[in-house]
Amino acid sequence: MRNKFLTTTLSFLLGLAMAQAQQPGKVSGRITDQQHSALSGATVTVLKAADSAAAGAGPTDATGNYTIGNLAPGKYLLLASAVGFRKSYSAPFELSSAKPSAYIPAIALAAGSDELQSVTVTASRPLIEQKIDRTVLNVEASVTNTGANALEVLEKAPGVQVDKDGNISLKGKQGVTILIDGRPSYLSGADLANMLRGMQASQLDQVEIMTNPPAKYDAAGNSGIINIRLKKNKLKGFNGNLSLGAGQGFYFKTNESLSLNYRNGKVNLFSSYSFGRNNNYNEIILHRRYRNEDGSTRAIFDQVALMRRRQQNNNLKLGMDYFLTSKTTIGIVFSGYYNPQKNRADNTSYLQDPNGKVDSIVVSENEQQERYANTSVNLNLRHQFDTTGRELNLDLDYIRYANTNEQYFSNRIYDPSWKAKMTELLYGDMPSDISIASAKLDYTHPFSKKTKLETGLKSSAASNDSKARYYTGDGTSHTNTNWAPDYTKTNFFDYKEQINAAYVSLNHKLNEKWGVQAGLRYENTHYKGLQYGNPQKNDSAFSRSYNSWFPTVYLSYNLSKTHQFGANFGRRIDRPGYHDLNPFLFFVDKYTYGSGNPYLRPQYSNNLELTHIFKGMLTTTLNYSITKDLFNEIFEQEELPNGEKGYATIIREGNIGKRQNAGISMNLQLKPAKWFSSNFYINYNYTKYTGRMYNEYIDVEAGNLFFNLNNQFKFGKVWSAELSGWFRSKGLDGQIMVEPMGRMDAGVARQILKEKGSLKLNIRDILYTQIPKGYMSFEQTDASFKSPRDSRVVNLTFTYRFGKPLKNGNSQRQRNVEETNRVKSGE
Fold this sequence. Notes:
By secondary structure, the protein is mainly β. It is built from five helices and 47 strands. The strands form five sheets. The protein has a 30-stranded mixed beta sheet that branches. The protein is globular, with a radius of gyration of 28 Å. Keywords: Cell outer membrane, Membrane, Receptor, Signal. This is TonB-dependent receptor. Its main location: membrane. InterPro entries: Beta-barrel_TonB_sf, Carb-bd-like_fold, OMP_b-brl_3, Plug_dom_sf.
């Protein structure tokens, strides 16, 4: 497999060297009213002449001018629209290798109409937009995203997979960095999954997937970056959007959201609030077989756990942009979420001898009350020095996560005849407080139309205080017991981290054929951790400092109207999560513990990617990466604490060695008819692990096939529908061999109330096939699991757009689309 991949790669590179290329095309022009006065903030959409599909869009600046790039060779026309004006089309034009740019004569818009027509234009965006450096998923283009949360939306994105624990991987590799409006979330693992589950799909506008981001982005994330862009209203005047939804799976769920926007003169005010009630369940069926050194069975452990969750998700955002001058804009954004949860888990475990005869039975009950609270503030400034594109951006951010977690455990132990032997009571109080402050400065300087320089600085400081206070009880119930501290589990972890970074990136068009972009990023990292002791444990501390360089290189060209090629290389890093460094044992259940590893080192990846785009409809990508000091979950067996009889599984992260990853993916967009469009994505991924685990050399490899199909249908002006699904074949995820899994969704939508409103009905996981299953072997232990959950859900959602747009569109001076859409902060 590897030899074939290298042969294909070398052939591709040889084709690059022998061919000639050019940068993607662009179109520019000016939009005015009938008195020839400039219209700022008008929307210009590039449409393919063949089928009127959107190929790109952008706004006009304060002088009415626009420029839209990244266009493939082909025939197009423009659609111009603005609040209070009737839309208008340009004459068709063509971009080619000989003429990659076009200037369109001024388009004059007549007064009248209603701005809500332009909202309909944006709603017709394709589900998937394939660009040379990223893939864009337009969330509202999918009917089956109605009623979903952000994590469920990501499951449908090309190349993205989400495992049973909410961990996100991209093209078969974990280590994805999640950005929200260009800002890092600074969360990982369960904390990140909980945050994404609390975000409603109705809040999302786009999902941008970058497998090899440029130097201006943080180097974290060995498999790339996923940037979730939230909705922002671009209309002038007062307007808003209301969404009401309900879903029924095993439990009833609701989701509601409201966004308001007022924009006039020098001020733009915006706000949004969403609320979701998500009741669900998750079942885990686990089997473990413990082996002797000769391979014979030592003991058998069977466990069945049913977890029920009741969640409320509250998300709020308030912000203001103020236009000091036509060149300078300042903004402030407050945002946060408050997501309380009440969870209950009932767990029955059967401990058996080698012949399968039950020795004892443990019935566990776990009641959990969690609260995830986040607040953040962003201050941003943008200054344009002139009209050439020279500009300065400054972002200051402060983020705080204040989470609480109270747990009540009870273990009731029975003999094989269900005669009670003893009761164990445990109470856990586990608050954590994470705060992050960051400052980021970016400067862009075009030297000419062919050459542009980008450079910047960033500094961030993070602090994480996590406490775990455990108490044991000697009574028969949580309300009738005396609690005493359990110092074998109690701990207090204090972690601090500082990252300083600088980057420079140069984009140059070598000639009419070739384009190149090269960047270099430097990051300095220093962290220290302190594990406070208790009467039974001593204090322990660790610290580390290291410097890293991250180069990136991009090449692009067009062989003809039909073929576009690209190649890129980049180096990236994954740092351990805050909790992954905490050395103490965390109680999961009587036979399962989690633990951090203070000696965990960061992992580094070198990534190579080659891309070919055929007629703008078929994108083929070859990728290869090698990761050193790879860290992954390690499962270990240890005797139960306090001298108890039996064994516990300890789960922690460890550096296990090296991973090689090679793959090929294809994304095909078809439009067989005006009423029918289809997007098909397929990815084959090959992974090989080598290194040491449990003092033994490991050498394992496996392939994995993943595909995603989405079919969109339009019936007349008001009806639309969708049929979609995905499938993942059997594959290796670290130590776990995961069985095949897939899902099928369907939905229908209708525009109502003169196209100001819509009704959407969908069902997700129709066949109830999204059930994680797998098995693993470790340290003389064989384990298998199955985890059904509340994934089959029917949703009904009503959406209504309202407002009173301003009609005097040319009386205001406004920013271009990057600023109109931006709640900008550090990346």
